[in-house]
Amino acid sequence: KVNVEKKSDTDPDIQEIVLTKTQIQVTLADELYPTQVLEGAAFTVFSDTDPENAQTVYTDSKGSILLTDLEKNTTYHIQEIQTTENYQTDDTDYTVEIGKDGRIDGETETTLTLTNRILRLSVRVVDTVLRSDTSDVSAELYTSGGTLVESWTTGSTGKSFEGLSEGGYYVVLGG
Question: Over the stretch 125-147, which tens digit does the pLDDT of each residue have?
Answer without folding.
Answer: 988 888 888 889 999 999 999 99
